[in-house]
Design a protein that fits this description.
The complex is a heterodimer of chains A (144) and B (103). With 144 residues, chain A is an alpha+beta fold. Chain A has a single domain, classed as 2-Layer Sandwich (Heat Shock Protein 90). Chain A contains 5 helices and 5 strands; from the N terminus they run E-H-H-E-E-H-H-H-E-E. In chain B, strand 3, helix 3 and strand 4 form a beta-alpha-beta unit. Chain B contains 5 helices and 5 strands; from the N terminus they run H-E-E-H-E-H-E-H-E-H. The chains are: A alpha+beta (144), B alpha/beta (103). The complex binds adenosine-5'-triphosphate and magnesium ion (MG).
Chain lengths: 144, 103
């Protein structure tokens, strides 16, 4: 009790194949400490969308996760190209993904809206040419 | 519906088997749409066959993947699904015909 669990992952910006490993590890960790499966699912999807965005748009970065008794916070930080118009990026269906990326099944423009939908607190900060940081908190009680 | 039942109804083949009985279905190819809309414990009908499909299924708790239009699953997809106990069925039918026969 009291102590939080801190996890840190490097997200490789080149690698679509291993992308998702950080999210899967967090999923396993939450399962191990008995978090309800509906909550785990929300965390998993929100984090995976963020991980994928770091790879596709952000050139990779770092995911820092902290698990408290009542909530989880996920901070996804990249030093990629950044987002010029965040409001636009948050709109359902807005995507700058290339044809190659679409062929992999990404680029529906639903990632950021999903992250917002599945988290209890969502914040995004971005500077063009410097990078993007997404911070999400998901509370554990809600679905219990 | 189990992978065996889905395979029998769609004249398909089982690439990875399980006994999971899916009660709900979802059809779609854009992975973020799937993660936003597919119910947990569902069967997912798609033409996407790369390894990210397994990642999506794991994280969104989809238990059966139905690959239609005769697409061949990548080896990595099969390996990941085996490891994660996610069933994979392949069929030559299109998504519409597949859904029609499963309804
Ligand atoms: N980390 C990031 N760095 C730079 N740009 C980003 C980042 N995350 C999102 N964006 C921009 O915001 C747009 C919308 O992101 P969103 O995740 O909603 O959709 P997508 O990634 O294009 O497609 P999908 O997530 O549905 O596969 C992206 O197309 C991209 O232009
Ligand atoms: Mg995205």
């Amino acid at each position: 009790m009291g102590d939080s669990i801190k996890l840190r992952y490097d997200v490789n910006g080149e690698d679509f194949v291993t992308c998702g490993q950080a999210s899967e590890d967090v999923k396993r960790t939450l399962k191990g400490i008995g978090i309800p499966s509906a909550t785990i699912r929300r965390v998993s999807i929100a984090m995976y969308e963020g991980e994928i965005n770091m790879v596709i748009h952000g050139g990779g970065g770092v995911a820092e996760v902290e698990i408290f008794e009542d909530r989880i916070t996920i901070v996804l930080k990249d030093t990629g190209k950044g987002i010029a118009d965040i409001e636009k990026a948050m709109q359902e269906g807005y995507s700058t993904a290339t044809e190659d990326i679409r062929e992999l099944g990404f680029g529906a423009g639903m990632g950021l809206p999903n992250m917002k939908k599945y988290s209890d607190e969502f914040a995004i900060e971005s500077k063009v040419g410097q990078g993007t940081t997404v911070t999400m908190t998901i509370n554990f009680q809600e679905d219990a | 519906m189990t992978a065996k039942e889905i395979s029998a109804k769609t004249n398909g083949k089982i690439a990875v088997d399980s006994d999971f009985d899916a009660k709900e279905f979802y059809v779609g190819d854009f992975l973020s749409r799937v993660m936003g809309k597919a119910p947990a414990d569902s069967a997912w009908i798609t033409v996407m066959s790369n390894v990210n499909v397994a990642g999506v299924a794991v994280l969104a708790e989809i238990k059966i993947i139905v690959l239609c239009e005769g697409v061949t699953p990548s080896e990595q997809l099969i390996d990941r699904c085996k490891e994660q106990q996610i069933a994979v069925v392949t069929t030559d039918l299109g998504a519409y015909e597949c859904c029609r026969l499963l309804s």
